[in-house]
Amino acid sequence: MEKQAFSPRIIAFCCNWCSYAGADLAGVSRMQMPPDFHIIRVMCSARVAPEWIIKALSSGTDGVMVLGCHIGDCHYISGNHRAAKRLALLNEMLAFVGIHPDRLLVDWVSASEGSKFQTLVTGFVQRVRELGPMEISGQEPMIKYQVAD
Amino acid sequence: MGIQEDQIREVQEIAGRLLLDKQVAAVVGLFSNHGHVGPHLFSSVDDLPGLALEPRYPLALDCRTLLSNFPKDRLGVVVRGCDERALIEMAKLQQVDMERLVFIGVACSDDQARQCACEKPYPRQIDVGEKVDGLSPLDDKKVQELIEQDMDARLVFWQQEFSRCIKCYGCRNACPVCICDECLLEETCWVEGGQIPPHTSFHLIRTFHIADKCVGCGACEAACPMEIPLTILNKLMREKLKELFHYEPGMEVSQRSPLITTLEEAPIRGL
Amino acid sequence: MDYKNVLTTCPYCGCGCGIYQSSIDGQLQRPIPDQTHPLSEGRLCIKGWSAHEHVASPDRLTTPLIRRGENLEEASWDEALSLVSSRLMELRKQHGPDSLAFLSSAKCTNEENYLLMKFARAVIGTNNIDHCARL
Predict the structure, then answer these.
(1) Please, what are the domains in chain C?
(2) Band of residue A17 on the pLDDT scale cut at 50, 70, 90
(3) Is B205's CB within 8 Å of A54's CB?
(4) What's the pLDDT at B269?
């Protein structure tokens, strides 16, 4: 199947305190995971601004994961509350524009849940493979010129 | 035609009283001059004969400028439903002081409501005009057509619409809740400069940034020279805000956007 | 409360979109597109939206400048105009009227353009006159 052959580009935003440590644990424990994702560490899942995800998905990234602490366990008390609500609404907007909602995954991974990280990533990479590459660049712009700094 | 003239007279009366009683320093409304109608500051009753009620101008931004330049004065303003909601939302963002505003509420007619496909074509207190029922966004034909399409078709539709964009920033300039001093849309790291049409991220970033503030005034679509149907997305986002958070922007100054509160204060419902 | 909304026309292209230029105490505020304009119908392009910015721009020249050596130095109008007229007459005498060319602008009024055209043709004696919109 052609779609299986494509290697998706995936960004995973992991919060410093829980999910990044969970990812680290998965790595140290030598858990098998597909290599098609890049982790960007942020201090809290609330730091993930909507324009990051919009820019990513509209510029060639095929999928975005945002992983934070479990609700109630956020290092900054309620950062993940904002992330949950903001990203839930963002997902709805992406769906209205024609970007499949499964391309944005928001979940909570604690520092000891290395295996959950492995399951999430493996499942997400597979799902993005099924969805195919994100094609939004479309046409060449009509006018393009160098902008002076 | 007759209804319009009566309404104008009533508004003139109320505005005249406010000015003569010195309850306000001036009234913000529309002035007609040789067939051209534009926003005007009625500082005395002499100008009132030229008052007009159509076409619709988003007066909220002018109120904001006036209130910040004249910090000691009270201002009267002729508001439709959308103007009032915009001012309430601006008050939430601390851009206007509601204590210094006196509203002259004008309800829109059936034709006017249909023109904007407005959900709530009347202000909280109606001083002039009769209340008419609004239209649900899901009754809007363009919104229905979009929802019926599948993912790929929706993407193609929006790619086509956004390909006409000339990056005039009209949507942002006309929007009453788009008030950031440093606009993200002008930063080249989010929207590449020198490109027409701009990258799709331009529209997506703007739509999401105002998603919890949009009052459905339609000024963005009215200001777009390329007639991009921006209100489709805004209407759908307002419906989702209602569905997920039971929240409507522009209702009460004391309400806060669900996106800046904790899950205890505003949980996600019906997911 | 000195708030004025002046109906004007965008100075840029030939479309002539209607703009209500708002001002407070003489300071220009935001432009408001004229919803009742038969052509522009309440819409503006990026040039229309920023047409007011050059008036109070910090980049704007406030005095004439004369290049002395490598630097541009401030000068009075009398100094600048005397220099321009003497040099123009000098060049015309040395190299002939057709060695001079005149370039006008769409941001000038029709009257100013006419004046420059008369100056070029009648005073200097050349028809090397053009306009940024090639009129």
Answers:
(1) 3-49 (2.20.25.90), 61-95 (no CATH), 96-135 (no CATH)
(2) very high
(3) yes
(4) 87
- CB-count exposure of residue A127 (10 Å: 0-12, 13-18, 19+): middle
A148 belongs to a structural domain: no
Residue A149 lies in a domain: no
Residue A91 lies in a domain: yes
- The per-residue pLDDT for B192 is 87
pLDDT tens digits, residue range A44-97?
999 999 999 999 998 889 999 999 999 999 999 999 999 999 999 999 999 999
Q: Report d(CA A47, CA B165) in Å as an integer.
A: 30
Among B184, B198, B237, select the one facing A51 at the smallest CB separation. Answer: B184
How much is the pTM?
0.88
Give the closest of B25, B55, B222 to C36, CB-based.
B55
Residue in chain C nearest B227 by alpha carbon: C43
Can you give the length of chain A in residues?
149
Whether A143 sits inside 8 A of B196 (CB atoms) is yes
Structure tokens given for B54: 């159509």
Q: Would you say residue A2 has pLDDT above 60?
A: no
End-to-end distance of chain C based on CA atoms, in angstroms? 43
- The reported pLDDT for the residue numbered A80 is 93
Which subunits sit against B, judged by 3+ Cβ pairs under 8 A?
Answer: A, C
**Site from B263, B264, B268 to mutate, A interface, most A CB atoms within 10 angstroms:** B263
Q: Please tell me if residue A60 touches chain B, with a CB cutoff of 8 Å.
A: no
The verdict on A86 touching B (C-beta cutoff 8 Å) is yes
Percent of chain A exceeding pLDDT 90 equals 81
Taking the CB of residue C62, how many other CB atoms lie within 10 A of it?
6
How many structural domains comprise chain A?
1
For B39, the closest of C32, C37, C45 (CB atoms) is C32
Please state whether at least 3 CB pairs lie below 8 Å between chains C and B. yes
- Residue B88 has a CB neighbour count (10 Å cut-off) of 22
CATH number at A19 reads 3.40.50.960
pLDDT of the residue at A1: 45
> Residue C130's CB: how many other CB atoms inside 10 A?
13
What torsion, rounded to 10 degrees, do the Cα atoms B234, B239, B243, B244 define? Answer: 0
Q: Which residues in chain C are closer than 8 Å to B43, comparing Cβ atoms?
A: 1
Residue A142: inside a domain: no
Q: Is residue B171 within 8 Å of residue C42, measured between CB atoms? A: no
Taking 50 as the threshold, does the pLDDT of residue C36 lie above it? yes
Interface confidence: ipTM more than 0.85: yes
C24 and B43 within 8 Å at the Cβ level: the answer is: no
User: What pLDDT is attached to residue C133?
Assistant: 74
**pLDDT > 90 fraction of chain B, expressed in percent and rounded:** 76
Calpha distance B67→B97 (Å, rounded)? 8
Q: Given the DSSP bridges, would you call strands B26-33 and B75-79 parallel, antiparallel or unpaired?
A: parallel
